[in-house]
Design brief:
Pfam families: Aminotran_1_2. The chain is α/β, with parallel strands linked by helices. It is built from 15 helices and 13 strands. It has helices at about 10-25, 40-50, 65-75, 90-105, 120-125, 145-150, 175-185, 215-220, 225-230, 245-260, 265-275, 280, 285-300, 325-340, 365-375, and strands at about 25, 85-90, 110-115, 130-135, 155-165, 190-195, 220-225, 240, 305, 315-320, 340, 345, 360. Strands 2-8-7-6-5-3-4 form a 7-stranded mixed beta sheet, with helices on both faces. It has a 4-stranded antiparallel beta sheet with strand order 9-10-13-12. Bound molecules: 4'-deoxy-4'-aminopyridoxal-5'-phosphate (PMP) and glutamine.
Length: about 375
């Protein structure tokens, strides 16, 4: 049959996780923690199910969770969104990204994405009938090149998609990026989709430049986050979108017919958890920073060269001292022959930089898992 997504195969995350399983490799590929979710959250979920919170939630999310998100947003970013008009709970950040794109992008529209970018962005744009315009981030720092982004803007540009902290590199927007972004969008009708799923996984005292801090940006933005990343439960698939009332109204038109609502018991559990233990998200950076530092120190004893990681839970490594293979071939070889699974970067690009020799390792893992991987990587 004619396909609507001719460029799309099976996602690299599925491909590499399957290969890891087949070969018994230590899987540092697909990004997910291998440790437990907070005990209070499990208990709250269990209680919600036993108390009969098992039917459809309100389409926009249960009020207690939207209130908790509003309060947390104010605490973190000094701005309290309206829980009724501006916050929508979704089945993961993935659903929120799809809903936002489908809500505002139509045939002939252009959407600027910054490569490397998360692999669901372009298919969402394609299904909406739009066209992704790829602008590369700096190949070394993964910082946005604002003059190149400005040059990509045309009268057809409808949406700009950003991601900070960034998957796969961990790069984070600075205040200067926010200033350039604000100037770029001023006096245009371009919407902004800010993917902030790693908002609390930030290191070395850096500040997360959430779009929600900035009135001029947030009045045109969909800001997306995911409880999967913050609460070690990627399999629960609960996220949310914050957007001004008019944009939320359009967003909800899609959401209500896409999923209608999100897993009810988890909404009760997150509402309780966010209010009762703000320390969890406040200390998430410190929790992951210890893992990052330990893993990096170990990697420095191998032939892989770790790049800086300002945020997120991925470590990029340069493998050019080990192999001349392209990144997909290298990651297959590393899994099959060396027993460690990584994610290649080229699937995150329209056109990856020539000769780039980078792979992504996830350090959201117990020490034992990382130690087992390092033991194998020492033999490279
Ligand atoms: N955006 C980015 C940058 C991600 O890394 C992920 C998770 N891999 C998502 C969105 C999707 O999040 P969720 O699992 O909540 O759908
Ligand atoms: N976000 C995860 C990652 O980047 C993968 C999510 C998925 O498997 N679709 O590894």
């Amino acid at each position: 049959p004619e396909t609507k997504l001719p460029k799309v195969g099976t996602t690299i995350f599925t491909v590499m996780s399957q290969l890891a399983m087949e070969h018994g490799a230590v899987n540092l590929g697909q990004g997910f923690p291998d440790f437990d979710v907070p005990e209070r959250l499990v208990q709250a979920l269990d209680r919600a199910m036993r108390e009969g919170r098992n039917q459809y939630a309100p389409m926009t999310g249960i009020p207690a969770l939207r209130q908790a998100i509003a309060a947390k947003t104010e605490r973190c970013y000094g701005h309290r969104p309206d829980a009724d008009a501006e916050i929508t709970v979704t089945s993961g950040a993935s659903e929120a990204i799809f809903d936002a794109v489908l809500a505002v992008v139509g045939p002939g529209d252009e959407v600027i994405v910054l490569d490397p970018c998360y692999d669901c962005y372009e298919p969402a744009i394609d299904l909406a009938g739009g066209r992704a315009v790829h602008v590369p981030l700096d190949p070394h720092s993964f910082a946005p090149n604002w003059s190149r982004i400005r040059a990509a803007v045309t009268p057809k540009t409808r949406l700009l998609m950003i991601n900070t902290p960034h998957n796969p590199s961990g790069a984070m927007f600075g205040e200067d990026d926010i200033a350039r972004l604000t100037a770029l969008l001023r006096d245009t009708g371009i919407y902004l989709l800010s993917d902030e799923v790693y908002e609390h996984i930030i290191f070395d005292g850096r500040r997360h430049e959430s779009v929600l801090r900035y009135p001029e940006l947030r009045q045109r933005a969909f800001v997306v986050s995911s409880f999967g990343k913050t609460y070690h439960c990627t399999g629960w698939k609960v996220g949310y979108c914050v957007a001004p009332p008019a944009l939320s109204a359009e967003f909800r038109k899609v959401h209500q017919y896409n999923t209608f609502c999100t897993f009810t018991p988890a909404q009760f559990a997150f509402a309780e958890m966010i209010e009762a233990e703000p320390a969890h998200y406040e200390q998430l950076g410190a929790f992951y920073q210890a893992k990052r530092d330990r893993f990096r120190a170990q990697l420095l004893t191998t032939k892989l060269k770790p790049l800086p990681v300002p945020g997120g839970y991925f470590q990029l490594v340069d493998y050019s001292d080990v192999s001349d293979l392209d990144d997909i071939a290298f990651c297959r070889w590393l899994t099959i022959e060396k027993g460690v699974t990584a994610i290649p970067l080229s699937p995150f690009y329209e056109t990856a930089p020539q000769g780039q020799r980078l792979a992504r390792l996830c350090f959201a893992k117990n020490e034992g898992t990382l130690d087992a991987a390092v033991e194998r990587l020492l033999k490279l």
